[in-house]
Amino acid sequence: MSERRPTVLRRDILKIGGATLLPLASILGLTAPIQRAHAGARAFESNSFDRAQAGLLLSVARTLFPHDFLPDKQYMKIVAVLDAKAAADKSVAMMVGAALGAFPDDFATMKEAKREDYLRTLEGSPFFRLVYQETLVGLYGDPAVSTLLGYEGSSVEHGGYLKRGFDDISWLPTNKPLLK
Amino acid sequence: MSGTARFDLDDASVIVIVGSGAGGGTLGNELAQKGIKVVCLEAGPHLTLGDIRNDPAAMFEKLSWLDPRVGAGDLDPQLPAWICKTVGGTTVHWAGAALRFQPHEWRARSTYGEIAGASLLDWPTTHEEMQPWYDRAEKKMGVAGSSQTGLPRLPGNNNYKVLAYGARKLGYREVHTGNMAINSQPYDGRPGCLQIGFCMNGCAIGAKWSTLYTEVPRAEATGHFELRPACHAVRIEHDAAGRANAVVYKDANGVDQRQRARIVCVAGNAIETPRLLLLSSSGTFRDGLANSSGQVGRNYMVHTTGAAFAVMPGEVHPDRGTQMAGIVMDEAPHRKNRDFVGGFLLQTLPPQGPLGFARNAKPGAWGRLYARDIEGYRNVAGLWIVGEDLPQAGNSVTLDPKVRDQHGLPVAHVRRVDHPNDATMRKRAWEVVRSIYEAAGARTIHTRGPFPATHNMGTCRQSTSPDDGVCNKYGQAHDVGNLFIADGSQFVSSATENPTLTIVALAIRQADHIARRMVRREL
């Protein structure tokens, strides 16, 4: 086993390197992969990961971008996307499986700071890059989340913001000479 | 109104313009208004206002030049620049800042002196001779804040007010909502700005100037101008005397067509323009057309940029209203007592959604603290830095030796690295930005490096001597008398200011020059 793992990982890195080339728009942070739109629509049924692996991935996603007001099911959408990717590509399943296999047994119940410490050691690995990328776009590319965060979206159909608060800032010190 | 013209492929009396953006669209309309016949080849599709959506991701896909390119040096390897492939070119996407160069920026070499590693040159064009052309450009574009239009400056949004408050508290004085080619009131048949936001996805009501709905339709209405969208120029041909006489292009079906021409003007932006000249090498011009100087593709400049996003103590709603809503100009002049030459501007820029903020404020960041910043999205203020970028001979556009596009042609290999002056300026600009947002009460401030460049310049520069550059002060190629460079490629210095107004002013002047020379039978 210890003989084989490096071999498997090296091959996976090559494959993942190709598979995770970002869509161009994502370089600008503008868009998320298309599959996210549907992935979370149904209850999560694991195709590739077992219950423990899915639980670990949920914990990783929450540790990366923890928002206490979001329920677990929001993060499970990301796990579902990862599961679908693993089901579609065996090398992804093996790479993720190998990475999760090396996690501390009590990762999910560790304090958040400890979980962060562990994930920092994985930064730059194919596993981390994949889960980071899917969590980032899975969360903030989801209109349900971006709306909760205060993003107001398209405005042209509402006549823009000319009469809807484009200059309604109220908290700046009202120093008239400064703000004239 | 004569309606749209249709010219025969064998009509050798037309001027062929490659590109329909700030340079090509303006030049085409100016020539057509003078009764000169123009065929305008545009690689991208012809969208209308009805195609514009307040959706950054969807519009990025619709507007951007996404044919493969190779980035090297400090550039993103996949997307070295963010420019457009659509009728109207990058004027569909631009944010509207319309600023004149400062006098010294036309004389960069004389002002800054010899700087190691920089290929500085003075423009053959002077500040004084450009002022009337700037006047005409501002009038044409409806620039708010210009005496040429009488249009007042736009009102400032929340993002602007944060910047203005912090900057004024630090003692900055030239802080305002900028000279913008966005109608602050109805002007020239286009409506006033409704503060919709999403300017860089295209203005859905046409309040922002773009050749898509100004120059192009007006040129068509003369009956002297034919737009051919989805027609991608691949080679400029010449006769035995070395004069350009035709442009070969791929039509919408990918079929080769050959349009004969009296004059050829290239305005494909500073990456595709040199690429087309390099692709047009021949037995006579072995290193590419108009390249006896070896300067085609060199001196690629993008502006020294960076960005900052600050989480403020109260709501800002940064996506509301014009994206480039305000400017700080106090650092724009060249000062002898600084450790860099040239200057920089600060211009507001919204994060464009939580995904844009999460990915861009601090690339690669994660964890509890960063998630807290993202939860403060409503409170985010943002800006970008636009500073002078020094020309360097090694920053360049060349033909990539390996990668080919959908037509089987070598793609542009775009390389850029910072000059030490750029790095020093950016560091200073970040310090200024931090001070401004701290003065306004910021809780967290993230500064970051450049995005893929939207300002691309210098790759076919003007020069007095044919040894130093590609074209003369009118954009006319030194080597090929009836070939013109009509876009930002002809810039000699990047200056501090956003380039579009200067591209438009140069295009108006170039049209005047071409028409005069044609009357005198010199072209």
Please specify the SSE layout and strand pairing:
The complex is a heterodimer of chains A (180) and B (523).
Chain A lengths: L3 H16 L4 H4 L8 H4 L11 H14 L7 H17 L1 H12 L10 H9 L5 H15 L2 H6 L27 H4 L1
Helix pairs in contact in A: 1-6, 4-5, 5-6, 5-8
Chain B lengths: L14 E4 L3 H12 L4 E4 L14 H8 L6 E4 L34 H5 L14 H15 L16 H12 L5 E2 L38 H7 L3 E4 L3 E7 L5 E7 L5 E5 L2 E4 L2 H11 L24 E8 L15 E2 L15 E5 L4 H8 L7 H8 L4 E8 L8 E9 L5 E7 L3 H20 L4 E5 L34 E3 L14 H20 L4
Parallel strand pairs in B: 1-2, 1-9, 2-5, 3-15, 9-17
Antiparallel strand pairs in B: 4-11, 6-7, 7-8, 10-13, 10-16, 11-12, 12-13, 14-15
Q: Termini distance of chain B?
A: 28 Å
* Biggest β-sheet description of chain B: 6 strands, antiparallel
Percent of residues in β-strands of chain B: 15-25%
CATH class category of chain B:
Alpha Beta
Spatial ordering of strands, largest sheet of chain B: 4-11-12-13-10-16
Question: Which structural class do you get from the secondary structure elements of chain A?
Answer: mainly alpha
Question: Largest interface, by Cβ-Cβ below 8 angstroms: which chains and how many residues each?
Answer: A-B, 53 and 63 residues
Number of discrete helical segments of chain B: 11
Count of extended strands of chain B: 17
Radius of gyration of chain A in whole Å, from Cα? 20 Å
- Summed up, the domain count of chain B is 1
Structural class of chain B: alpha/beta
Low-confidence stretches of chain B: none
